[in-house]
Write a structure and sequence with these properties.
9% of the residues lie in helices and 48% in strands. It is built from 3 helices and 14 strands.
């Protein structure tokens, strides 16, 4: 799963937080050009119920810059550190999504994750196997695996699936078998499944 995080870390633009200051939201521009865009962030309870209204911050990022773009409302801090709340932060430049991050202030074992299954449908689109994932609750550390001995690649893995989000994952490899693909998350592990 590490290569998915490395790919994310080497993107031209990234939204990050700091373990030392979980209320701080940083936006990093690692490209040669300045980037103008907007950071939108919002706090949610783990079931997807909004705790706050969206907050918008316009940014002009210089090349190779890391800026403290925003600080979350200090009223959220207790709930965030107790693992009851997460913050969704998205930076967009023009019409294209440049970066997004789900921010947690608690360690994974302290997150108050809800019980809930991940629904998975498999379809073939343009000759490729696609897994469409959906869950009514936030699913942390979603991982797709295959019971087959052959190596399969997934377009994303080890991610957070937001409440009521549908996410398409493209499966590649030599003749992937949809019936052998399994999905689970940290929610299921933590809740004894």
């Amino acid at each position: 799963l590490l290569h998915y995080r490395v790919r994310e870390r080497y993107a031209n633009v990234a939204v990050l937080c700091s373990a030392e200051d979980p209320l701080a939201i940083y936006v990093v521009n690692d490209s040669l050009k300045s980037v103008r865009g907007e950071l939108i962030y919002q706090a949610f309870y783990m079931d997807g119920t909004p705790l706050s209204e969206p907050v918008q911050v316009r940014l002009n990022l210089k090349p190779y810059a890391c800026v403290l773009a925003a600080r979350c409302d200090s009223a959220w801090e207790t709930e965030m550190k107790a693992g009851k709340v997460y913050v969704m932060a998205r930076f967009t430049a023009g019409k294209n999504l440049s970066a997004e991050r789900v921010l947690f202030a608690a360690l994974p074992k302290e997150l108050q994750l809800k019980k809930g299954e991940i629904e998975m449908q498999t379809v073939v689109e343009n000759g490729q196997l696609v897994c469409v994932l959906h869950s009514p609750v936030l699913q942390y550390g979603v991982q797709l695996t295959s019971g087959e001995s052959k190596i399969l690649r997934y377009s994303d893995n080890g991610f957070t699936l937001l409440p009521n989000e549908s996410r398409k994952i493209i499966v590649s490899g030599k003749a992937p078998n949809a019936a052998c693909i399994q999905v689970r998350s940290y929610n299921q592990i933590k809740n004894g499944k």
